[in-house]
Amino acid sequence: MASHRRPKQPSRTRVTVLTATAAAAVAVTAQSAQADPGSSKSEVKAKVDKLYEEASAATEKYNGAKEKADKLEKQTERLRDSVARGQAELNKLRNGLGAMATAQYRSGSVDPSMQLFLSADPDSYLARAATLDQMSGKQAGELKQIQDKQRSLAQQRKEAKTKLDQLESTRKELGSKKKDIQGKLSKARSLLNELTAEERQQIAADEERASRDAGDRADLGGGSEAPAPGRASSAYGAAQSKVGSPYVWGATGPSSFDCSGLTSWAFQQAGVSIPRTSEAQANIGTRISRSQLAPGDLVFFYNDLHHVGFYAGNGQILHSPKPGANVRYESINNMPFMFGVRV
After folding, report:
1. Distance CA 75, CA 90 (A)
2. Among 34, 147, 172, 298, which residue's Cβ finds the most Cβ atoms within 10 Å?
3. Mind listing the pLDDT tens digit for each residue in 131-158?
4. How many CA atoms within 13 Å lie on the side-chain side of 224?
5. 0.70 exceeded by the pTM?
């Protein structure tokens, strides 16, 4: 049975909310989100957290489009290779047919009945005529092969064009979603910039402390809960080794993660391939209720299932929370829980 005690925090330089947000929003020129006059630090932070949540949801949509684009690129490349090989085979068939037709023409330039009548050796002529018939039959077969290959190539080219059109559309979708994410992060930064330097430092310090101390505060029940069966426990153990790693949208490790990037990376370390996005991960394994959760089960949050993490035991989860935060333990009650999945 795997131990569920909190692993030692990595001794790395912590990434503060301001640094992570600034890095994620590099080169984005978005309209500044102005804080209302007289907004308190807590009100600004609530707005910033809301933007982070929206950015996280948009990130999962981006991840889905990215996964689709990667799959389409591989399919398109395979089709291109297949078309190229097919064209080479067609050229070879055509060259062979051309040589055969030339030979037939040269051997059959005189009417066959006249050749037989004039032949000094009828037996020899009849042998040649039989060979000529065989060549004609082979030629017919070659012609059919060429026709079949031409039809196959036409179908493959049509399929390749369809995939290319889909790929182009998906790439445009990727660009739009990326712009949406960066815009929200830029607005969050603008809101933070409306605060005084002291207030910004305090928010950054609070977030850093939350990431650093979450494991110390988390009571995992001393490993009293039986772990999830199969390789889920091993995946959870891999995720534990990444406590303290920064959230970066679209990241799948090994040094930074978004929420579904952490879970997919962790299962990969356990030798299990699961889908990339939280929405897709919600459709694998067996769905379970909160009362059935065991350490290592996946847990899903929000109506659109845009956030996922690992159940850690005793009402705690292990996840990569949001921009500006690090992989950490938190209460399962901090977000609207939907259901668990046992892989």
Report:
1. 22
2. 298
3. 555 555 666 666 677 777 778 888 888 8
4. 6
5. no
